[in-house]
# Entry
Amino acid sequence: MELSVTNISGQDSGRKVDLNDAIFGIEPNDHAIYLDVKQFMANNRQGTHKSKQRAEIRGSSKKIKKQKGTGGARAGNIKSPTIVGGGRAFGPMPRDYSIKLNKKVKQLARKSALSTKAKNNNIIILEDFDFELPKTKNFLDLRKNLKIDDKKSLIVLADQKKNVYLSSRNLKDSKVISISELTTYEIVKASALVLVESSLAVLENNMLK
# Structure
């Protein structure tokens, strides 16, 4: 697949790049994408939720009332889960939500996500660029020039560029990451994927190992 290289003014630079069909032209595997996104979200859960069991509640362990003869249900002490302020029965406890996924499945998921974006013409190849100063206006102009100002966009750089990142960080529908941070989740989440030209070579090199 061949794509034109665009400059930051949104104009065709006159150059073209070939997208490797082994990465951008495979038949997408939706189940692999699902598994990779599921793992990403599960691994990001803290798992620190906790409620107090009846043994952890402060209070008397004395029986509230006698067992029989009151006309009501029998009751234990004030720590009972059936009483307001008592412990919680079967409440959440700290746990590890992380799951494992085979490396080949993760790689297939990423290729599938990139192929889906390529098939839907949602990939833009951008010339390498940087900003002299971190200004949100510069980044807004870039999005407008690329005609992605109304889309949820993901811009992938070959390496970290502080001024570009700082210019974008307070915008809700845009994200800037380096190629080492690229995940299937980020690709699927974005409506427009912008690959800086130098990041494309790094991506293809990493994916074809």
Q: What stands out?
A: The two ends are 20 Å apart (CA to CA). Residues 48-96 form one domain. The beta strands are 2-6, 12-18, 123-126, 153-157, 174-178, 192-196.
